[in-house]
Amino acid sequence: MDHDKFLEYVQAENKVEPKDVMPEDYRKLLVRQISQHAHSEIVGMLPEANWISRAPSLRRKMALLAKIQDEAGHGLYLYSASETLNNGENGADRDSTYQAMLEGKAKYSSIFNYAALSWADIGAIGWLVDGAAIMNQVMLMGNSYGPYSRAMVKICKEESFHQRQGYEILMTLCRGTKEQKDMAQDALNRFWWPALMMFGPNDADSPNSKKSMDYRVKRESNDDLRQRFIDVTVSQAEFLGLKMPDENLVWNEERQHYDFGDLPWDEFMEVLKGNGPCNKKRLKTKIDAQKEHSWVKEAAIAFAEKQEELVNA
Amino acid sequence: MDHDKFLEYVQAENKVEPKDVMPEDYRKLLVRQISQHAHSEIVGMLPEANWISRAPSLRRKMALLAKIQDEAGHGLYLYSASETLNNGENGADRDSTYQAMLEGKAKYSSIFNYAALSWADIGAIGWLVDGAAIMNQVMLMGNSYGPYSRAMVKICKEESFHQRQGYEILMTLCRGTKEQKDMAQDALNRFWWPALMMFGPNDADSPNSKKSMDYRVKRESNDDLRQRFIDVTVSQAEFLGLKMPDENLVWNEERQHYDFGDLPWDEFMEVLKGNGPCNKKRLKTKIDAQKEHSWVKEAAIAFAEKQEELVNA
Amino acid sequence: MNPLYKYTLKIADDSLIFGQRLSELCGKGPYLEEDIALTNIALDYLGQATNFYKYAAKLEGENKTEDDLAYLRKEKEYLNAQLAEYPNGDYAQIILKVYFYSVYLKFLYENLMQSSDEQLAALAEKSIKEVRYHYTHSSTWLKVFAQGNEESKNRVAEALENVWEYTGGLFDEVEGEADLEKLDLIPSSKKLHQDWKSQIEKDFATFGIEIPTSDFMQKGSRKGIHTEYFGYILCELQYMQRAYPGCTW
Amino acid sequence: MNPLYKYTLKIADDSLIFGQRLSELCGKGPYLEEDIALTNIALDYLGQATNFYKYAAKLEGENKTEDDLAYLRKEKEYLNAQLAEYPNGDYAQIILKVYFYSVYLKFLYENLMQSSDEQLAALAEKSIKEVRYHYTHSSTWLKVFAQGNEESKNRVAEALENVWEYTGGLFDEVEGEADLEKLDLIPSSKKLHQDWKSQIEKDFATFGIEIPTSDFMQKGSRKGIHTEYFGYILCELQYMQRAYPGCTW
């Protein structure tokens, strides 16, 4: 296959489809990225699930459940998109990518290793975490692989809804009692920096980005996306009446962007290494669920086999 | 062994001691009764343990824990008393009697198959259940088997303390808000009849009692003990300002006792058969605990064996 | 106390507590697809609870909201069946509980659709489609387990052993049901129980599950008597409302 | 905020939450004797918590009771170490947690007995005997497990893997500890940590347990940042006080 021609093809904004010929490293890049994205949706259910039983009103409880359900749905789309890349040898199918995640060989977004400690965190997760995810996903709508790009279109719609819901939770708290507002401020303080780190390392420290950009999988740099997220989010925080936990955050008239302080990259690297507040807990929850329910799959297979025997008899 | 002489011996208020010669049916009767009593202490920990994490003040939480701990201690004394009757063939040792209970072959007091649903139940259990138990145990202090009789002396002291504590819990509720007093009344309503049934069937339906009486294991009939309990308890309820849930309860000047309504024996028989609110739950809790911790004993044995090897080396 | 209020409350309380229990599974199901399906059922329950609470609040006429009723009553004021609060257990037990409850709700709503109370009839009509789907989902899995392998058969049997004695409570009555029945406001609970039993017998015969022979049923459902599990459900359910009284969320 | 108040509170909160967790085991221990022993330790913790809360309430000077402090604060106001709230797990993990905490308390109280604050010194003196017994009990079992059989060794290793990263939080400081230290009111947390580490190293060498090489420690202890487990502890702990505000029990 002509590699230059492929680059030319995707750079002319053409979509690659499952049956198209594609370079192996393009395929691998996508499988890794899409399945990681899928795992993030699935693991991302857990911090929020921590608050279902304690959600403070029926309406909020239902919205939260529905949101988590959407995330499971996103996981499904994404696993399907990843599976279209299966060429019989690269393990792009859902079971093997999921297994790799459970074994710690594949990653999910580090943000879900933070704890959801208060009801306000549910708001902050919607506002900031989904907000940051959307920045990334809107970009990915334009990515060169057809099934992934189409999955993103679907997902983005729901995510914007989730983000508004999260913001609305915080709005309610900020209009409530002092204790409620403090709860919102605490959540912002805890989630602000981790949310900014969702965009990945600074461009200077992100050597893999170039290939992604060339292949039109990624369309914008980490720093550009992060800057856009900050620019959009600051006024939202102001509207809530919350204070950003960054003393260096200030509008730069010349750049027409906000300047901001250094991110706590040491913490980021620690969490990535497995040393976050909930890394072990998240994986253990998923591993335990798999163990506990392994018999269900076996029973279903045994049942299906019997049915087949009946049909063939 | 001369059976009549033995009867004469115990009926002259002499105590039988472990090494004394005794009729086999006396030994069996005691093993059954003492181990059943021990099981009751052990299973009786569970309804109360249900409220430790929710006890409404530090003082109450500690008192409750201490009480449950006392019950475990009573269990220990009683298993020891039962073990003194081991003659190498009747399985009077703790492990085999306990195992028989877990397998449903040995009983514990049916009262512990009722649910502890509110904080007031913790009061009612102390006042009524321990109260009924004390009536029985005071009688058993005079029983003819030395170790059992001495265990009862120890236990009775602590039980009276528990009973006062339970009564005091209810007193606090009855002097509290209307909601608290209602909680106390509900607990009385639910525990009154089950407590009365702790004394066993009416004398007419209790064919085993005679042998027990002859052997001076039992000293008073079920109905006499029940009557005494009622007579004592009615005024205590009045002092609390609670209403006994028995429309037929009325002082009989002639008998100098309270008359009272028919007991719900059908329910009693059901619970005895295994059909109480918590029969399955209680047994399952104990069985699960045994399963979960079986490795502890194995590790301890392995450790002890290694120590022995070291000593002998 | 208005008996129709209590009756509406018993329906709402069942749905709330079933929904609360079922949502414990969220994120921890056996497949992603099942996680979605079961969350969906939990959501339907919570939606039905909300609707019936709203109506109950209206019947009570004390300006309460659905949240007041769901979050701020004391343990003995909840009128749900004990089956709702019984722990999830393994997936066989979860499915069995949903199955039993779905058959019950199917008959309940089909009958309530004929109620002389227009509101109740409308609420039932609104909910019936959901419940039919729950029935299909749970009975499909129940059949798979009953006819799957040894392990799944044993699990169904054990779940049945645990849960059967709580099924009768679904049909226990709140005060005044007889009067409501005379006014064609509600169906007869006895009749519902018969219909339910017939359906179970039919299905179980198909699936190859034996119906327990014991006819012992736990008492106390619909009367504010609960299992020991229930208090813990309320601890979590009510925590925020209790710890921050009077707040809007 | 009076730093000595916060310091006293951190001691009390540890004891309360350790006691609350440990008492979950009551009635479900491996032997009757262990059930009694562990309940006893839980009782000691709760007793110590009560004493330190009483003193904290006095230091705060707002006429609060020990129950107000134990039952009526919000999650972020509890200053316990996250180790206290970490789930019990199996018996190896329970013993390991008690062991780590006992070594900590032993050094803490031995040092506090020298405090220039007479009350703190007296409370420490009152508690030290109990803690020495807890140390003996837990270290005896830890040795048994470490030298028992393959399973018990693996369980100790797994418990250590779970719990180790939470031990550092015991030594995290509340605001103003440096000032209190200068006044000889409290010992240096850094020094305590060193003493603790030395003791653990010595014991583990005897027992044959390897100390984890990772020096990653969870952050947030003593600052009101908790694990996700903590909220559930409060749901149960506080339920009665929250649901029936202002009542006497």
Automatic annotation (TrEMBL), chains A, B:
Key word Oxidoreductase present: yes
Parts forming coiled coils: none
E.C. no: 1.14.13.149
Record keywords, A-Z: Oxidoreductase
Gene Ontology cellular-component annotations: cytosol
Pfam family, one: PaaA_PaaC
Domain of life according to the entry: Bacteria
GO molecular function, one term: phenylacetyl-CoA 1,2-epoxidase activity
Identification of the protein by name: Ring-1,2-phenylacetyl-CoA epoxidase subunit PaaA
Species in which this protein is naturally found: Frigoriflavimonas asaccharolytica
Lineage: Bacteria, Pseudomonadati, Bacteroidota, Flavobacteriia, Flavobacteriales
TrEMBL record, chains C, D:
Keyword Oxidoreductase appears in the UniProt entry: yes
Top-tier EC class: oxidoreductase
GO biological process, one term: phenylacetate catabolic process
Transcription listed as a keyword: no
Coiled-coil stretches noted in the UniProt entry, renumbered to this chain: none
Entries under InterPro entries matching the protein: Aromatic_CoA_ox/epox, Ferritin-like, Ferritin-like_SF, PaaA_PaaC, PaaC
Keyword field: Oxidoreductase
A molecular function GO annotation: phenylacetyl-CoA 1,2-epoxidase activity
One GO cellular component term noted in the UniProt record for this chain: cytosol
EC number annotated for this UniProt entry: 1.14.13.149
Full protein name: Ring-1,2-phenylacetyl-CoA epoxidase subunit PaaC
Organism: Frigoriflavimonas asaccharolytica
